[in-house]
Amino acid sequence: MESLELMPARIKITSILKKAIYSGEYKSGQELSLTGVAEQLGISRTPVREAFQTLASEGLITLRMNKGAVVNKIDEKFIKDNFEMRILLESEAAARAANNGMETEKLLTELYKMRDQRPDEIDVSEYIELNQSIHTNIWKASDNSKLTQYLYELWNGPSTGHSRPESIIHYQKSTMEHIDILEYIRDGKAKDARKAMSQHIGRSMENILKYYSEN
Predict the structure, then answer these.
(1) 158 three-state secondary structure
(2) What pLDDT is recorded for position 167?
(3) How far apart (Å, rounded) are the C-alpha atoms in residues 208 and 13?
(4) pLDDT at 5 exceeding the cut of 70
(5) What is the distance between the alpha carbons of residues 18 and 22, in angstroms, rounded to a whole number?
(6) Three-class HEC string of 81-105
(7) How many angstroms separate the CA atoms of 121 and 132, rounded?
(8) Per-residue model confidence as pLDDT tens digits over 167-196
(9) How far apart are CA 111 and CA 188, in angstroms?
(10) Max CA distance (Å), the chain
(11) How far apart are CA 54 and CA 107, in angstroms?
(12) CA-CA-CA-CA torsion for 133, 213, 180, 174, nearest 10 degrees?
């Protein structure tokens, strides 16, 4: 049976900050401090510092010596470029997972439970962890370490709005999409898995662009 992959702290923090920049929660020119972000997230400064370095290498922030960082101005093309790479690579990972006989039983069981929950019963933290496990298990099942590495670097977490109602709608849609993807993988339908993953990431991109344009 498959394991539930744990995402490294640096990747998790990077994805949280990346989403905040993409969605306009962090504005262009806004200053970010290591201590402030660490306190906001309830973690130590070390993973935040590592995340800052990753974001700086991608052009999302500019580091300031001993003063944290400043958010750079990005445009819609920057966001599209990121998601288009995710579509290409993660669709390939899903197809390979189907061809490689990835075990999906445990993940699908968790998804079926989430699908049957009422909106007010959905636990956001549980969804985020399950979402990460689904994607990282698919990457692992692709059996290509470079592909997995690139996807970790592109990861930006759930592409939701800032309000709970918007987030819940996204979680419900994503849950159904994840079920489709994993059922295709379980049944060895690589072509269908590839298409379903492409549509899933594509919808996430449209969500982020919507929230970016509103800000």
Answers:
(1) coil
(2) 77
(3) 18
(4) no
(5) 6
(6) HHHHHHHHHHHHHHHHHHHCCCCCH
(7) 20
(8) 788 888 999 999 999 999 999 999 999 999
(9) 19
(10) 53
(11) 30
(12) 50
Q: Tell me the three state secondary structure of residue 66.
A: coil
Q: How far apart are the first and last CA of the chain?
A: 44
Which ranges of 100-163 does DSSP label H, i.e. alpha helix? 105-115, 124-141, 145-154
Please report the pLDDT score of residue 9 as a whole number: 82
> Amino acid identity of 64?
R
Amino acid at the residue 119: P
**pTM of the predicted model, to two decimals?**
0.83
What is the spatial distance between Cα 162 and Cα 203, in angstroms, rounded to a whole number? 17
CA–CA distance, 44 with 179 (Å, rounded to integer): 35
- Spatial distance between the Cα atoms of 189 and 142, rounded to a whole number of angstroms: 14
Taking the C-alpha atoms of residue 94 and residue 85, their distance in angstroms, rounded to an integer, is: 14
Average pLDDT taken over every residue of the chain: 88
Pairing of strands 61-64, 31-32: unpaired
Q: Residue 77, SS3?
A: helix
43 DSSP 8-state letter: S
Highest mean pLDDT among 16-25, 67-76, 78-87, 160-169: 78-87
- Mean pLDDT for 15-24 is 87
Question: Do 154 and 66 form a contact (C-beta atoms < 8 A)?
Answer: no
Q: Which residues pair with 62 in a beta bridge?
A: 70
**Rounded to whole angstroms, what are the CA distances from 169 to 92, 107, 193, 200?**
27, 20, 23, 14
